[in-house]
Amino acid sequence: MSIRKKIFLHIGSHKTGTTSIQRFLSLNTEALSDQGFFYLIPNPWPLVIKTNGVDFAHNIKTEGFDIIDDLGHDNIIISHENYSWLSDLRNISLLKKSLSRFGRDIKIVLYLRRQDSLAVSQKQEGTKWIDCSLAYGHDISALPSELSSRAERYLDFYDKVRLWADVFGEENVILRAFEKGQLKNEDVVDDFCGLVGIEKNNSFRDVGRVNESISRRKQIILHASRQFVGERNKVKDFMVRYIVNHSADDDEKLLPSRAAAIEFYEKFKEKNRLLNDEYNITNNKFLFDEDFSKYPTIENNNIELDYIVKTFTDMVGSLVNENFDLRSVVDKDLAHILRDIALECESEGDLSSAYRIMSKASSIKPSGHFIKKKLAYYKLKLVQEDGN
Length: 388
Prior knowledge:
There is one protein chain. This protein has helices at residues 18-27, 29-34, 89-99, 115-125, 130-136, 149-155, 157-168, 188-196, 216-229, 234-245, 258-266, 269-279, 305-318, 324-347, 351-364, 369-387, and strands at 6-10, 37-39, 47-51, 56-60, 75-79, 105-112, 173-177. It has 388 residues and is α/β, with parallel strands linked by helices. It contains 16 helices and seven strands. It is elongated and about 85 Å long. α3 (89-99) runs parallel beside α7, α14 (324-347) packs antiparallel against α15 and α15 packs antiparallel against α16 (369-387). The protein has two domains: 6-196, 3-Layer(aba) Sandwich (Rossmann fold), CATH 3.40.50; 216-252 and 304-387, Serine Threonine Protein Phosphatase 5, Tetratricopeptide repeat (Alpha Horseshoe).
């Protein structure tokens, strides 16, 4: 067994160009090999998420690292943003113990993004992925109204870095600020290559834009429907796939107000300063650039009911192209989702919207007794209102 290898464990953070880095490494295996690098995607996967529906954690499986001993490359790169969720010293120590069998020189690479900006992006990712969903919730807002303990631990960069440094050694933790002015050529792929010693030349293929954010409207409708849909089921998967890939109606992003973003960021400033004092990451006192001009004066979290109804209508129509088994499951649950949204409108006194949405539920499930009963009730009440 050789322990002369140098291992780079790139642990994120989320939404810091990690997908671009991984795509670049996957596209350029031959060019990387020519320079003595190997991009390892362990099999079985080391991070196994477990959840009780309220919180989540990761089990660590290290068998996928065993192949390192058979690789004829001096430099091994392992990359995944979910490593940055780890907050259990035992799990991080297990990683160190496993990787140390193959290399004494192990570097931890972590990109850091200003907490308000990172939380906005992670909350958006919660429309798709269960970890961010449980950590940031589904308030109809760009930032969570209340920060979960899981999210708070994640965004506390000082404690996070101290945890990894205590296990791997402070000198082996490489930190970079994910800001254009801090990155080589203002590009995270170029920056990462420079950090690990990859010399980009004409033999390397570049990657385009990947993992782009979804629009304000799409994000709001996915957040709003999650209470009716739940997690880890065919309906949720279908809805996310359909809405995310739906033709773009606008490019506007869901953003908090400037004041809300600043207030959110203020919670982390002092620990950012402590981290920057120890690692000298940037010349900014509090680590990050503090320009908040990208945020609007007022949060843009409103959405037109007509858009919600049209989206669900189009989504139901698209089921024609789905296989029958999935379609029968989704049709049934979509009717229930629309029914519950209609009841929500009723509870808020909006009977007109309740009637329109319940009508759509009835078109999906015409045999639904409760739906028909509610439709008759709404129709009667609306006629009475018109008469008055």
